[in-house]
Amino acid sequence: MDIYSVENVVVEAGAHAKIHTGIAMEIPSGFVGLVWDKSGLSMNYGLKTLGGVVDAGYRGEVVIGVVNLSKESYVVEKGHKIAQMLIQKVESPEIKEVKELNNSERGEKGFGSTGG
Fold it and tell me: pLDDT means per 10 residues in the chain (116 residues)?
């Protein structure tokens, strides 16, 4: 679902801001709201969302954190789409502490080790 701003906000170049949406929701237990970028805002203007998790127990206003990664200020206008949210099922596996991990093909190879 698209998320809209209820206010005008200037996000200066390199700065972050909180953008109010005027909405609150009751996400069912076992689910979470994941906040994602609007692709046009992120690719064309460098506006990226921050801290994009809305827990099932949260009942306050959904406020979208953004950072402006561009070299120019960006003006968010009241009524503009600023983010999107997916409601997704959450698994809660049992966590076990172990002394060692099983081997895998990748092992401890880090960034770029899978060819990307």
Answer: 97 98 96 96 96 94 97 97 97 93 85 72
Domain boundaries, the chain: 2-89
Amino acid at 39: S
Task: Spell out a b/e string for 85-109, using b for 16 or more CB atoms within 10 Å of the CB, else e.
Answer: beeeeeeeeeeeeeeeeeeeeeeee
The phi and psi torsions of 44 (rounded to 5 degrees) equal: -90, -25
Token pair, residue 40, equals 């046009």
Domain 2-89, architecture per CATH: Distorted Sandwich (2.70)
Amino acid at 2: D
Measured CA to CA, the distance from residue 43 to residue 40 in angstroms comes to: 5
Q: pTM, whole model, 2 decimals?
A: 0.82
Decide if 48 contacts 42 (C-beta within 8 A): yes
